[in-house]
Amino acid sequence: MSNVSAADEAILANATAQKGHPKGLRVLFATEMWERFNFYGMRAILTLFLANALLMGEQEASIIYGGFLGLSYLTPMLGGYIADKYLGNRNCIILGGLTMAVGQLFLFGSASIFSTNLDLSKSLMWFALLVIIFGNGFFKPNISSMVGSLYPAEQKSKLDSAFTIFYMGINVGALLGQTICPLLGDREVVMVVNGVERTVRDLGAFKWGFLAAGIAMLIGTITFWFLKNKYVVTPTGAAIGGKPNHSLSNQDEATSAKFTRQAVMILGALVVGFYFLFQYLAWDSTAMPITEPGIGGYFKALALSPIKTFVYPFIYASGLSLAIFILTDKSLTRVETQRILVLYIVAFFVIFFWAAFEQAGSSLTFIADNQTDTRILGWKMPPSMVQNFNGFFVIIFALPFSALWLWMQRKNMEPISPVKQAIGLALIALGYFIIAMQVKDLGTSGKLGVIWLIVLYLLHTWGELCLSPIGLSLVAKLAPRRFASLLMGVWFLSNAAGYALTGTLGALLPPTTDKYTAASEKGINLQGILDGTTTATSEQLAFLSERKIATTYPHFAGFTIHNLFEFFMVFVILCGAASIILYAITPILKKMMHGVK
Ligand code: GLN
């Protein structure tokens, strides 16, 4: 588009100024929509696939899910860096999109062969998740930053509404993905077991869900490929998000921080130090015994549970190290330091939000699967599809919420961002509290009405709308320009830490009704075994272990989780406490923000 005439330029510039939003936003909207279809669609059925087809059990599936999500939000640091330094946003989006599509095809492969070659199927699954993690790292940060680049300086006031529209695109994609992938991949068949007809999960269907996710990603990448040169351009027709222009690096100097080799080494040392600290703190000696002394035993234990012992501490260590590292920069003024500290404090509290919120794809899906009546108007909804109410509610409420903030702004009543974040945390706690009350008296055989999961998603979505879109703009407002990308990185790493915690907390899910039923059909008193009043025979133990049914209750922070009520109360207490503390310190935060809203 470099050979547009001056007249064309004028027309383009004029059209952009009048129409509200540049046409490029539609392309980014569509691309992100297909990408989120792929990501969330796959995610909806992933844990069920791991637990049921790959026979990993729900606990391990939750741990893998948390590690997968956490790493998916760690790699954007890398994708952002490579784009800024070498490839540019456009290339990274295409590369990331294709990579994720390939990853989905590997999952399709894994889900096609698990019944004949479980080991190969598992290896393919690990490889596929790794590929998707890197693909997401290339894609996600670059598409978001391109939204910002669409608007020249004089139109930056449109950014808030641009991001609201973009957030809708995210959720239209999530809604479609979490509808279509479950419809294709989470199905039932009638089988005759011992002469009795039974409706069971069709394990062979998962692959179609993964294939649909892969195709969606391809559509997104192709859409972007063909439309980018026409629409994703500045008002004067120059490509947005092309390769970085290194001849402009003098200009960059004022806006981006430079680090010496020594500083980078300090960062590396911090990561290693914190990594071992977190590993030490979280080491679960029962799950990960060191059977041999020395380094060999250590690595054996690591191999037993690589996500818990390696991935999670690495994620926490990266976030904390980067945060501390930025603060050691000598050029920071007192006001800048205080603003950064506000960002860190908020980022810390937000960890609990995501940890509770993203149970959607693990424990809440298992509950929908095992202890919920998912019939809606007589139609039985696939359990993995229930989470699509989140996307649905975002689409309905995103605009009203942004209108509400604008209205409050005009009345001079708009709460400052940390207050909104505290409200978000309170809403998520409330969502869990309502459902906790519903499951209180269910016992080991009752089923939850799906309406309560829908109510939970409604409250969680309101919480998300108070917290998530605002977080990004808070970073933009509080970060000194030269640290903007690094602090965005810290923000993403706090999301990643939240996801790691998602894995740990999701694995606390106590046995749901299906486990009690399966045990009692074999004449096993599971409740008695769990309570320690019955001793299981070795035959019974073998059956339970083969079905991945735990024989002890999960523990967390010295507490035993006996039932779903106590499980949900973990989130009520964590998020409720986080909300109250964050709200209580907002007057201090407000001072430290020095005028930033
Ligand atoms: N659902 C949003 C997305 O996928 C937000 C997720 C997040 O910020 N952690 O982009």
Structure description:
The structure is a single chain. It contains 22 helices and 8 strands. By secondary structure, the chain is mainly α. The chain has 3 domains: 433 residues, Growth Hormone, Chain: A (Up-down Bundle); 69 residues, no CATH class; 42 residues, no CATH class. It has a two-stranded antiparallel ribbon. It has a two-stranded parallel sheet with strand order 3-6. It has a two-stranded antiparallel ribbon with strand order 4-5. The protein binds glutamine. Glutamine binds next to loops.
Give a nutshell description of this structure:
By secondary structure, this protein is mainly alpha-helical.
Features of the shown structure:
597 residues, mainly alpha, Growth Hormone, Chain: A, two-stranded antiparallel sheet, 8 strands, binds glutamine
List the topology elements.
Layout: H1 6-19, H2 24-53, H3 57-72, H4 75-113, H5 118-149, H6 159-185, E1 188-193, E2 196-201, H7 206-231, H8 249-255, H9 261-282, H10 294-304, H11 306-327, H12 334-357, H13 363-370, E3 372-373, E4 375-376, E5 379-380, H14 388-410, H15 417-439, E6 448-449, H16 450-478, H17 484-506, H18 513-521, H19 526-531, H20 538-546, E7 555-556, E8 559-560, H21 564-584, H22 586-593
Parallel strand pairs: 3-6
Antiparallel strand pairs: 1-2, 4-5, 7-8
Helix pairs in contact: 2-3, 2-4, 2-5, 2-6, 2-7, 3-5, 3-11, 3-17, 4-5, 4-7, 6-7, 6-14, 9-11, 10-11, 11-17, 12-15, 12-16, 12-17, 12-21, 14-16, 15-16, 15-21, 16-17
Bound molecules: glutamine.
